[in-house]
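Got a spare moment? Tell me how you read both lines of this record:
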Amino acid sequence: MHFIKPNLSIKTGLLLFLIIIPGITYGQCHKGVVFCKDTHSAIGFVNIGIIGKNVGTVSDESGNFTLALDNANNDDSLRFSMIGYEPKCFLVSKFKENLIKEVFLNPTSYNLHEVKVTYHKNREVKIGTEVTSNLLRSGFSDNALGSELGIKVETRGKVRLDDINLNVATCTFDSVTYRLNIYQSASEDEDDDSTYKNILTQPIYITFSKDMIDRVIKVDLKKYSIIVEGNILVTLELFRDMGDGRLLFHTEFFKGTTYHRKAIEGKWAGSPGIIGMYLHGQKLKSEPRHSKNAILAADIKQLP
């Protein structure tokens, strides 16, 4: 973990603090395309990464990808993953041997949560930290595909999410689009990263322009019927090339930790100071249960 020395502006009195995610070691570049096995159509924005390492990328909208693989990773596993499809793994050494790199992913289906109807009002809850102070700002150090940045929180009981809110301090892009990821731990140990799994059943994309950051960026999540419980990680992912620019969040140094990783299969790292990211939801008093008949093929949302 590296830090940029804070710069204090005499005119504005703002303290600038950047989270720096370590770079990767570049090896030989390998190109390929990801397809759906059923339809043979290309799959855009597929996560590609070496398990346990900060090495990875994301395919473009046409399924094309370029990935640098070093010989030191020959015995590691390379995983292709996308919400709505079964992940697929390759031994790096075997993957590098294939001259034509076409990867086919099988579509998958999900068990939907069925919530028992009750007649009492659910209690509204707030998850995460709202930050409005201008003293500290932090964010992605670069625009590496697959990088993630977010918060780790604990819910006491089951919560149905209503919205996510972002306190953005600086945006030098005309507009940005990030992919939302929500990971839930299967363990009571919040520090056991291996137990965090993405619980979303379809991709969710968050788009806003730089003209909107003078107020809270609020995104409605009700239509996705997301139910969380226990320890969760809520992150934004850089899933496509946005060119040169920077996005920084209002940050509170003494209130928590911001989590980040360089690639989708990499290990999480924590940095002091929590970014302005929080959610609203409804605390459920009833117990969600799986319905045997509630099976739905994944509906992949198209980008706006």
Remarks:
- The mean pLDDT is 84.
- The longest strand covers residues 148-166.
- The first helix runs from residue 92 to 97.
- Residues 83 and 201 are 6 Å apart (CA to CA).
